[in-house]
Amino acid sequence: MSEVDWLSHLLRIVTVTGQLEVRCAYGAPWRVTWGHAAANEIPYHVIVSGRAILEDPQTRTTQELVGGDIVLLPHGAAHVLHDGSGQTPVRTQEHRGSAGWVLSENDGQGEKLDLMCGRFFITPPHDRLIRNYMPANLVTRAGNGHGEDRGGSASDQLASLVRLMRMESSGDRAGGRAILDALSSALFTLVLRASSEGEQAPAGLLALAGHPRLAPAIAALFADPARSWKLPDLADMCGMSRATFMRHFQDKLGCSALDLLTDLRVSVAANELRKPAISTDAVAEAVGYQSVSAFRRVFTERMGMTPGEWRRQARHRA
User: Fold this and answer.
1) Do residues 34 and 125 make contact, with C-beta atoms less than 8 angstroms apart?
2) Are the C-beta atoms of 180 and 20 separated by less than 8 Å?
3) Which of 7, 27, 149, 159 lies 20 to 30 Å from 127 when distance is taken between CA atoms?
4) What does the pLDDT look like over 177-192, one tens digit per residue?
5) Per-residue pLDDT tens for 100-132?
6) Please, which residues have CB within 8 angstroms of residue 256's CB and are 6 or more apart in sequence?
7) Which helix (H) or strand (E) holds 107?
8) Where does the pLDDT of residue 318 fall: very low under 50, low under 70, confident under 90, or very high at 90 and above?
9) Looking at the predicted structure, is the pLDDT value of residue 201 above 70?
10) 69: closest CA among 117, 36, 109?
11) Number of Cβ atoms within 10 Å of the Cβ of 256
């Protein structure tokens, strides 16, 4: 794995799986409502064709989505998708296929929508790492799939992935559920890659990773969080003074580099504490703390429980 591949390093720490749940074939007027997702779940929607209005009831904000748009809601917020007409929705009928996902249809005669909906599942406690550093809504546009460069852009790769998901969800074939789940997991990674490479990367981790001068620091922190990083070292890596580095980092991420480093160490420690054979002292040293008491203090502050309590909870969950 490349040392500059921050996303692969992130996904070694944070286990994310995906699941396609509903394929919607609607004619306007239509409306679908989702409640707040569980702490370890991120809803996603893929507009295969047509148009949809994404509405946040809490903030009363709306956003128009069109064919090729993919939306993730990393904070799991309650939301509504509708056709924007304000008319009474046509009643839907649902049919569950053998692959586990549901086909939802209506007899609406208005503008047609082809929509795929599902969820990503994040292994606890890493949902907090994702939600702390991702925007509430993450919208990415899939390309036309005809990129001329070898391998295509992330946007074009997304378009190819969506076509595969659409084909696989068009029938009940052997291995269909397993393939759709695997494609959903890949969807999460490609959306993050495309968002970080876009010209308007959203605030937070994706903006930081996509910043050409700050990218070396984020890659270094993810590649080796146990290292005793100092701000001057990170600033030098980015060709900045310490003050400039701190200001840019704070502006993009909303917190300091040392805050991010602490969260990464706690997340790695949470994974290590699942292993019954490794002691708390050994975990503390493995994630960069020379003092086990300092590690316990930081872990408890970030997790709301001691390392021992987390270990017991994780063992019970398993």
Assistant:
1) no
2) yes
3) 159
4) 889 889 999 999 999 9
5) 789 999 999 999 999 999 999 998 888 888 888
6) 246, 249, 250
7) none
8) low
9) no
10) 117
11) 13
Q: Identify whether the C-beta of residue 30 lies closer than 8 Å to the C-beta of residue 89.
A: yes
Residue 185 CA to residue 192 CA, distance in Å, equals 12
Residues 6+ apart with CB under 8 A from 13: 126, 129, 264, 267, 268, 271
Supply the DSSP string of 46-95, one letter for each residue: EEEESEEEEEETTTTEEEEEETTEEEE-TT---EEEE-SS-SPPPPEEEE
Q: Is the pLDDT confidence value at 80 over 50?
A: yes
Residues recorded for the chain = 318
Closest CA to 16 of 177, 186, 146, 143: 186
What is the rounded distance in angstroms from the CA atom of residue 240 to the CA atom of residue 230? 14
Query: DSSP letters of 216-275?
Result: HHHHHHHH-TTS---HHHHHHHTT--HHHHHHHHHHHHSS-HHHHHHHHHHHHHHHHTT-
- Dist CA 42 CA 130 (whole Å): 10
Q: What whole-number distance in Å separates Cα of residue 201 and Cα of residue 197? A: 7
Dist. CA 218–CA 261, nearest whole Å = 9
Instruction: For CA atoms 258, 261, 266, 269, give the dihedral sign.
Output: negative
pLDDT tens-digit series, residues 243-299: 999 999 999 888 999 999 999 999 999 999 999 899 999 999 999 999 999 999 999
What single-letter amino acid sits at 238? C
In sequence order, the 6+-apart residues with CB closer than 8 A to the CB of 239 are: 213
CB of 194 closer than 8 Å to CB of 16: no
Give phi and psi for 88, each to the nearest 5.
-60, 125
Instruction: Go through 13-23 and write b for each residue having 16 or more CB atoms within 10 A of its CB, e for each that does not.
Output: bbebebbbbbb
